[in-house]
């Protein structure tokens, strides 16, 4: 069975240049960033060092077991992937324990509401997978 090239299956993923990956970047955002929160998520945001806004996700063991944590991460990646954000910010979404039981539409509303309150949403990309 042949697998697809990584670019062909990018529907629910956040592109590599739009991801926070280094521990130092996460620590900087968590230490110096501003906060927005609701019942399901906490958004920490800080001025970024790169041109595109970068996104990181944190789901602690408080959210649930591995299956629940991975489900929350997959949902958040699916919601954040097609969004077009203003450049120059680093964002970290921290899932609260209630996020594991929240339906997809509720998480989607939560993400969009937090980003709107932070003034970061430009548009929603209609093209999926590219």
Model description:
The chain has one domain (23-121): Ribosomal Protein S5, domain 2 (2-Layer Sandwich), CATH 3.30.230.10. Strand 1 and strand 2 form a beta hairpin. It is built from 3 helices and 6 strands. The protein has a 4-stranded mixed sheet with strand order 1-2-5-3, sandwiched between helices. A two-stranded antiparallel sheet has the order 4-6. The protein has helices spanning 23-32, 66-80, 104-118, and strands at 34-37, 41-47, 54-58, 83-85, 89-95, 121-124. Mean pLDDT is 84; it is low at 1-10. The protein is α+β, with helices and mostly antiparallel strands and 130 residues long.
Strand count, sense and closure of the main sheet? 4 strands, mixed
CATH architecture verdict: 2-Layer Sandwich
Radius of gyration: 14 Å
Mass-distribution shape = globular
Tally of distinct domains = 1
Order of helices and strands: HEEEHEEHE
Distance from N terminus to C terminus (CA atoms, Å) equals 24 Å
Report strand %.
Answer: 15-25%
Whole-number mean pLDDT? 84
User: Which strands sit side by side, in order, in the main sheet?
Assistant: 1-2-5-3
CATH topology: Ribosomal Protein S5, domain 2
Find the count of extended strands (DSSP E, 2+ residues). Answer: 6
Structural class: alpha+beta
CATH class label: Alpha Beta
Unreliable segments of 5+ consecutive residues = 1-10
How much helical structure, as a percent, in the residues?
Answer: 25-40%
Specify the number of helices. Answer: 3
Subunit structure: Consists of a catalytic RNA component (M1 or rnpB) and a protein subunit.
InterPro entries: Ribosomal_Su5_D2-typ_SF (IPR020568), Ribsml_uS5_D2-typ_fold_subgr (IPR014721), RNase_P (IPR000100), RNase_P_CS (IPR020539)
Protein name: Ribonuclease P protein component
GO molecular function, one term: ribonuclease P activity
